[in-house]
Amino acid sequence: MENNYQKFEQNIANEITIEAKDQMPDAYRKTLIRQIGQHGHSEIVGMLPEGNWITRAPTLKRKAVLLAKVQDEAGHGLYLYSAAETLGADRDDMMEKLIDGKMKYSSIFNYPTLTWADVAAIGWLVDGAAIVNQVALCRTSYGPYARAMVRICKEESFHQRQGFEAMMALANGTPEQKQMAQDAVNRYWWPALMMFGPSDEHSPNSAQSMAWKIKRFSNDELRQKFVDNTVPQVLQLGLEVPDPDLKLNEETGHYEFGEIDWHEFNEVIAGRGPCNHERIEARRKAWENGKWVRDAAVVYAKKQQLEANKVA
Ligand code: FAQ
């Protein structure tokens, strides 16, 4: 067994992806199932805040685009659940753990979408933050996860641009629309920064995940990249970043920003955010209502298998 792990270590060192059938340490497998499973849950729960606006989108075009975006997120969830299954995870078990609060999903989806501008802000800021994190994951050491990320990133960058365009329409609209855009930035800016996780010194999983090359950059490095990318976009929209401490450091070329409210972050990931209860209840209901479909699919698959055996 030791030799097999030596091969694993060599592959990691030589930038050769680990594949489903390769030997891997149990802790590596568990870390991946945790991260990929939570990532999949984020995509699925992430459909809820935007889905809330499909019937209320301001135009038919906006409705069609939003519908397609929300469907894309469902697809991302399914690729990720499939990637977790290659590691031996069971999809039903992951779903039940989500509903029972034993598996997490991204903190960002526990905030409400109060206005149409919040939907634009999610497309622009939340998908924007997701891309920064996920571009790095295209080079993650586990092959099926890395490959799923390539396609997901292409779709997320389209989402980010449509969010920016929707935001631009509001920012260039009436004074009321511009104010609605600013309110959405005020409410979503800090939660978007929290998506990158705790600061490096308070991130228990980072050191090992970086050593295994699951994570290529630390939480703080990615957060900084997002701030540097996004502040110029806020300014281009004629809006303000809700951070009095934000300033460009001329020497480093990076934006320095204020302290994140870690108490709020910890409350949200502990299940005490504004919409945690509502999100989990929506997933529970969908899971229970979908039981007959899952049962029918199993019966159908068994029948197909019997027929295939008869032919063989
Ligand atoms: N929310 O030691 P670390 C999207 C947890 S996709 C909730 O730093 P790690 C697309 C963490 O799990 C968004 N929990 O952990 C979309 C751990 O708890 P555990 C999702 C968080 O794993 C757009 C504990 O805190 N993206 O949005 C959060 O090394 C629009 C300690 O943290 C991904 O999941 C958080 N923000 O680093 C969909 C990307 N941060 O498990 C619809 C993949 C940390 O020990 C609409 N994931 N925690 O109990 C990752 O890159 C990593 O898992 C991090 C966290 C960076 C999120």
TrEMBL record:
Keywords, ordered alphabetically: Oxidoreductase
GO molecular function: phenylacetyl-CoA 1,2-epoxidase activity
GO biological process: phenylacetate catabolic process
EC number(s) from the headed UniProt entry: 1.14.13.149
InterPro entries: Aromatic_CoA_ox/epox (IPR052703), Ferritin-like (IPR012347), Ferritin-like_SF (IPR009078), PaaA (IPR011881), PaaA_PaaC (IPR007814)
Enzyme class per UniProt: oxidoreductase
Superkingdom of origin organism: Bacteria
Endpoints of the signal sequence: none
SUPFAM superfamilies in the record: Ferritin-like
GO CC terms, sorted: cytosol
Pfam families for this protein: PaaA_PaaC (PF05138)
NCBIfam families documented for this protein: PA_CoA_Oxy1
Protein name: 1,2-phenylacetyl-CoA epoxidase subunit A
